[in-house]
Amino acid sequence: MSLQAFFDSFSDSCDIGSRDTSVQFNWTKTGCGFGSFTIYVHDGVLYCDSETMSREFVKDRLMQLVDECIFTDRPDEKDQERLERANEWRKARAERQTHRIARQSKARQSDTTE
Fold first, then answer.
1. Would you tell me how many other CB atoms lie within 10 Å of the CB of residue 27?
2. The overall pTM is greater than 0.70
3. How many alpha carbons lie under 13 Å from residue 70 in its C-beta half-sphere?
């Protein structure tokens, strides 16, 4: 049997890979609000607690998640842009943290001198 014939014999499937696993996704959607859904395995069966949102809604959020994530083994131009935005966000967060710590330190110093 050729390798291609072997691959062609597979059925389409996707498994979470663990028997006792759950993943929670938090979402926001313009005009809809916010919420979360959880995909989990119980007794070997895959479930989704969607907080009453439709199957299509959950699919759309999962597709959005895939579109927004950075693929480590096959990066493209969008992945590079995402990495740059993530680095800018980290830098801005570190600067805010530094300023907050400096303000707190200054406030403590003024409290001890009074």
1. 19
2. no
3. 10
